[in-house]
Amino acid sequence: MPIDPHLLMAFTLTSLVAMVAPGPDMLFVLGCGMRGGARAGLLATAGVATSEAIHVAVAAAGLAALFEAAPTAFAVVRVVGAAYLVYLGVQMIRNRGEVALDERAGGAGMTGRQAFLRGLVTNLLNPKMVTFTIAFLPQFVNPELGGVWLQFAILGAVLIALEFLVDGTVGVLAGRIGGWLRVRRAARRRIDVATGGLFIGLGVRLAAER
Hints:
By secondary structure, the protein is mainly α. It has helices spanning 5-20, 24-36, 38-61, 65-69, 71-94, 112-124, 127-136, 148-182, 185-208. The longest helix is centred in the C-terminal third of the chain and has 35 residues, at 148-182.
């Protein structure tokens, strides 16, 4: 086996427990699902998962050492990511109640493409994800087995699968509930305000983290 089965089991259980606890990714997917429907929630998850695949590749290449060597780079990326989330939140509140498609066709306030790209960009602009990945994944890699890249790839695949299992489920369920609420104009406006406030809160939280 290209990876230690005991380490793989420990990694899977640890990752699952970490993902079940509500965090920025889950809250972001929840907001996308509520505003854009089940498809948007699932595609937001896909965006987050894609960025996680990139983070795993970065961790395997050791590029996260850049943040340790240049703390300013870490701070700049963190602030940019926080500002992006705040910007999204403000835009949602400003445009509350508006939909991208004709209301008679049941249009939603966030397209699948927007949800995917925002999930991708938001997670990519969170440098803590890079440092977390490079600190976390190597604990479950056994260099003596060889094929370190393959071990990283297997761990990354497990991480992405769990992302879809946990956050994907949250996004789809939020989309079902949001779809029922969006047929009511007042409820749709409240969803947009709540989602915007959620994104602003996530941005402030990211900026305040050390």
